[in-house]
Amino acid sequence: MSYLDVKTVDVKMTTGDLMAIDFHSESNRLTYAGREAGDDWARAIRSVVSPEGGRVVDVGCGGGVYCKAWLGLGAASVVGVDFSAAMLSAAREYCEGLRGVTFRHAGAYDTGLPDAAADIVFERALIHHLDDLGACFREARRLLAPGGTLIVQDRTIEDVTRPGTPSHLRGYFFERFPELLETERARRPAGAAVEAAMREAGFRAVRTLELAETRREYAGVEEVRADLLARTGRSILHELNDAQLEDLAAYVCGRLDAAAPVRESDHWTLWVASV
């Protein structure tokens, strides 16, 4: 993405000041790095595309987690594209020593890569940050070789508003701070709008799937608390000030069994389309 690619949502919390995430800050460079993609994600991907020997472009690659995951699925090469130099520095560290992965500092609307450079374009947790889905998908269409596949992984408001459970911690965020739903409603794409934008960009056979992706397994509530306070991997937590975040961590941990491990999943929608 470029600076112009990012949608700014100006929502004032009633209990504190807005603290939206700065993707360019060195302090946030490791926010989306360091974990492994789960087997449930890999199974979902294999159900819609054959990655073996393919050329993948991961647009909005963040900390490089899924660049590594695509190589693990057998991709021949992966190009990670991101608008944040800070995130890319973390991605390079995370993928250090891996053959077949390169990174590019560029935007979702103009990656600067050649036409037909990819067999698969992957966009995870990207489109809810963008103002122009059409421009994003036209660039993806340009990047794909004939027969190529676009996979978009993001959350709709329906994904976000699932009830809180020990396996879906995100739901507890909105129980404690329902004001956060204003931010989510402003930025989450409608499924029909995503499909329409894909078709307008020249894609065909657009379909959707639901995915419950394992995010992390915690030994207990103290690990959950530490992860929340670090604002790791969830940009919505940057909408809370420090006092609110402490409050949220206490609330979530209070809903969990203190003696039991926690396996957290996030709910996503996958949009899959072909050229």
Structural class: alpha/beta
Q: Tell me, what's the shape?
A: globular
From the alpha-carbon coordinates, what is the Rg to the nearest angstrom? 18 Å
- For the termini, the CA-CA separation is 22 Å
Low-confidence stretches: 1-19
CATH architecture: 3-Layer(aba) Sandwich
Order of helices and strands: HEHEHEEHEHHHHEHHE
Number of structural domains: 1
Short description:
The chain has helices at residues 39-48, 65-72, 85-94, 133-143, 157-160, 170-176, 180-187, 191-200, 221-229, 242-254, and strands at 55-59, 77-82, 101-105, 118-124, 144-154, 204-218, 262-274. By secondary structure, it is an alpha/beta fold.
Structure description:
With 275 residues, this protein is an alpha/beta fold. The chain has one domain (3-274): Vaccinia Virus protein VP39 (Rossmann fold, 3-Layer(aba) Sandwich), CATH 3.40.50.150. Helices cover 33% and strands 23% of the residues. It is built from ten helices and seven strands. The protein has helices spanning 39-48, 65-72, 85-94, 133-143, 157-160, 170-176, 180-187, 191-200, 221-229, 242-254; strands at residues 55-59, 77-82, 101-105, 118-124, 144-154, 204-218, 262-274. The chain has a seven-stranded mixed β-sheet with strand order 3-2-1-4-5-7-6. Helix 2 (65-72) links the parallel strand 1 (55-59) and strand 2 (77-82). Helix 4 (133-143) packs across helix 8 (191-200). The longest helix has 13 residues, at 242-254. The chain is globular and about 50 Å long. The two termini are 22 Å apart. 41% of the residues are buried. Residues 1-19 have low confidence and may be disordered.
